[in-house]
Design a protein that fits this description.
heterodimer; A: mainly beta; 7-stranded mixed beta sheet; 4-stranded antiparallel beta sheet; 50% strand; B: mainly beta; globular
């Protein structure tokens, strides 16, 4: 199986900060990568698919980049609603795998 | 508006079975692959199974041979039959729309495996 490793595991930031989360795949997955946001007690929400395509309705402060084995999710200006846990997920193979998550906390 | 509503979770003894359902609405169900993703308490997300609109299935190694995914395209419902359950299967189970990325999710149903 393809392993997905996110860094950092926890990130402390302030409203207005630019935030970047990294996701690395154990082998090349082309651009078959998605990013999700999850808040406590809630289902995940798709933010980005195919590494850089913004899901409909998602604010433009969210962006994704990368290909192959290294990917990033960037929040250009952190808003109060953005404090949550973020997961990357690869779908290059039938056997989808998620990163372990990055919790974005209030500094 | 896409809606996915899971049901069927609960408390089950180790070795027992449970069948989860996911009622779908707001889209042409038969045209889309569907998946199950679970989340153990305080842990991350784990994909466990997917099924295409025509019925092709795939499973994670952790559930292969014990869980069966199926669908009823007439009644717009996704199922997950879970057998030989162990405490490690304790989790919130989400149904999700999609094969690669998952663009809509249900609210989840909690399965607790405990004696």
């Amino acid at each position: 199986d393809i392993q997905m490793t996110q860094s950092p595991s926890t990130l402390s930031a302030s409203v207005g900060d630019r935030v970047t989360i990294t996701c690395r795949a154990s082998q090349s997955i082309s651009s078959w990568l998605a990013w999700y946001q999850q808040k406590p007690g809630r289902a995940p929400k798709l933010l980005i698919y195919e590494a850089s395509s913004l899901e409909s309705g998602v604010p433009s402060r969210f962006s994704g980049s990368g290909s192959g084995t290294e990917f990033t999710l960037t929040i250009s200006s952190l808003q109060p609603d953005d404090f949550a846990t973020y997961y990357c997920q690869q779908y290059d193979t039938y056997f989808k795998t998620f990163g372990q998550g990055t919790k974005v906390e209030i500094k | 508006e896409v809606q996915l509503l899971e049901s069927g979770g609960g408390l089950v003894r180790p070795g027992g079975s449970l069948r989860l359902s996911c009622a779908a609405s707001g889209f042409t169900f038969s045209s889309y692959a569907m998946s199950w993703v679970r989340q153990a308490p305080g842990k991350g997300l784990e994909w466990i199974s997917s099924i295409t609109g025509s019925g092709t299935t795939h499973y994670a190694d952790s559930v292969k041979g014990r869980f069966i995914i199926s669908r009823d395209n007439t009644n717009n419902t996704l199922f997950l039959q879970m057998n030989s359950l162990s405490p490690e299967d304790t989790a919130v189970y989400y149904c999700a729309k999609g094969w690669g990325s998952f663009d809509s999710w249900g609210q989840g149903t909690l399965v607790t495996v405990s004696s």
